[in-house]
Amino acid sequence: MNRRWVLASRPGAVLGDDIFRRDDGAVPVAGAGEILVRNVYVPVDPGMRPAMMDVAIGVDAFEPIPLGAVVGYMTVGRVEQSRDPSFVAGDWVTDMLLWQDYAVTTGRTARKIDCTTVPPTAWLGILGIPGLSAWCGLVCLGMPRRGETVVVTSAAGTVGSIAGQIARNLGCRVIGIAGGENKCRYLTERLGFDAAIDYHAVTDLTGAIREACPDGVDILFDNVGNEMVDAALPTMAVAGRVVICGQIADYHLAPDDRPGIRNTGRFVSHRLTMRGLFVYDHAERFDDAIAQMIGWMDAGDLILEEHILGGFERLPSSFASLFDGSSSGRLIVRIDESLDRDIQGE
Questions:
Q1: Neighbours of 97 (CB within 10 A)
Q2: Which tens digits make up the pLDDT trace of 39-82?
Q3: Which of 107, 148, 151, 304 has the largest CB neighbor count within 10 A?
Q4: What is the pLDDT of residues 205-264, one digit of tens each?
Q5: H-type helices in the chain, by residue range?
């Protein structure tokens, strides 16, 4: 049997229990030139939410997920059957194989990964799309210079926490914005951020950013949305760069309901630039990014807090926790415990 979670209804402002539905099917069979992969680790990603909306309020770069279709994003699994000479049974791979036990794919999209020196889950975090988004957004679009000030929003989240550490490793002063005292303490005490702002505890976010960044913000790396960008704009330094990586606070809103950006005068007076990140535009830099981040990982200069939960049934509730403020770090569900025991030598 191939367990699968499918999209049962379009989400509203609050993710209800009726959004997903179990719809199990037969295990697929690999055809000529294909591989059959059994998923082991399945992450939950906030970026999946806009694709769950209807076409009117989805993200233009992605087609909305049809009702009744399997949901999900990138996963890590092992090859069960190969009809592609580039792969053999037992190979670890990562691909967009969704929330299901088994999927058929090809070498055009599946990436064989080395799990001998890093754990498989690293390829869903630091070495996966979150880490690549952080690296490409900061390095390719932010273009940081040593001594500059970088502000990262949703800084305790997966992408934000990686982006902040990359900025620190490149010699920048890093300020994180997060919700809650514990998250802010984690940023400064565990990840080495220079300061953190608890947006729950301040009434004037612009003032709080200005106080933490008296010389101005050179790079704003945003994962939250328009309201937070607008609050940060008055604090930007001359020739500052705004990188729009994600909009987690706006994903569930229709375009007419999303906050606007009012402080646009700063773009003129301080010659700012703002660019949106589509990580696959920088695919030619992925190998450079992975090599540099592995080096930082080996040196202990780049870490990611992982929360690994066991059980296929936990995927829907784990996804909902991304939007209620209860999660931090990278949330991953292990759906094949037998393979996990195998790699741990149990």
A1: 25
A2: 999 999 887 888 888 754 444 556 789 999 999 999 999 999 99
A3: 151
A4: 999 999 999 999 999 999 999 999 999 999 999 999 999 999 888 777 777 888 999 999
A5: 48-52, 129-135, 158-169, 181-185, 205-212, 226-232, 265-269, 286-298, 315-321, 337-344
Q: Which CATH class is domain 129-282?
A: alpha beta
- Listed by start position, the domains of the chain span 5-125+304-344, 129-282
Lateral strand order in the sheet of 236-244: 195-198, 173-178, 149-153, 217-222, 236-244, 273-276
CB 191 within 8 A of CB 161: yes
325: nearest Cα among 248, 268, 273: 248
What's the topology of domain 5-125+304-344?
Quinone Oxidoreductase; Chain A, domain 1 (3.90.180)
Integer Cα distance of 330 and 324 in angstroms = 15
- For the chain, first and last CA: distance in Å? 25
DSSP result, 280-314: GGGGGGHHHHHHHHHHHHHTT-----EEEEE-GGG
Residue 231: helix, strand or coil by DSSP?
helix
